[in-house]
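Subject: UPF0173 metal-dependent hydrolase DFQ00_104122

B.,
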Amino acid sequence: MLNITYHGHSSVQLGTEEKSLIIDPFLRGNELAVNKPDDIKTDVVLLTHAHMDHILDAEPIAKANDAKVVAIVELATYMSWKGLDTIGMNMGGTVDLDFAKAKMIQAFHTSGIVLEEEQRIMYAGLPAGFIIDIGGKTVLHAGDTSLFGDMKMIGDRHKIDVAFLPIGGHYTMGPEDALQAAEWFNAKLTIPVHYDTFPAIRQDAERFVQQLAARGLEGRVMAPGDSISL
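Prediction pasted inline below.
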């Protein structure tokens, strides 16, 4: 069985009865989040890219849980400098986490750490998504991305049970492009993420799910703190 908890923005926690992983923890900076970093119990932290709204709470959560941090090599190296136990990987690679396997896939976005005091931006590797095999299910987390044609190839090559797709627009693809992505990924269940956190990414998630249904696809809106089991 797979347990899924949505923590808001792009943060998703996937777990079996014994262990779990969390993707892109961003709780302190999200007014819509119902949990705090201290509430999170997990074994692994997966990071899709280095923007603050995806990595803000990676350090406190990883340290509190003695959890490994999985990310692209450059970002993993940066996190290791903070004293974290990291696994660096790259596009197309797969890591075996014992209770789950995570394959890194492309995302079209940017990735860098803004060092305000130095007025400098530090390169942090390419942005990514993940295909995760856990609890007998295959879960795709697209990360922050625009629409791109190879999504169809990914959908053709993988039988995806659940896909988490950004719909916010402005910084990522919006609902219209996300509908096309959902068709190409052809997941059994599509869940929208990366919306409503900031004014620039306000969207009608319920309407998006209705539009999925019109295309013969199942969708579901999860509010921050919601959990489901599959």
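The chain has a mean pLDDT of 98.

T.
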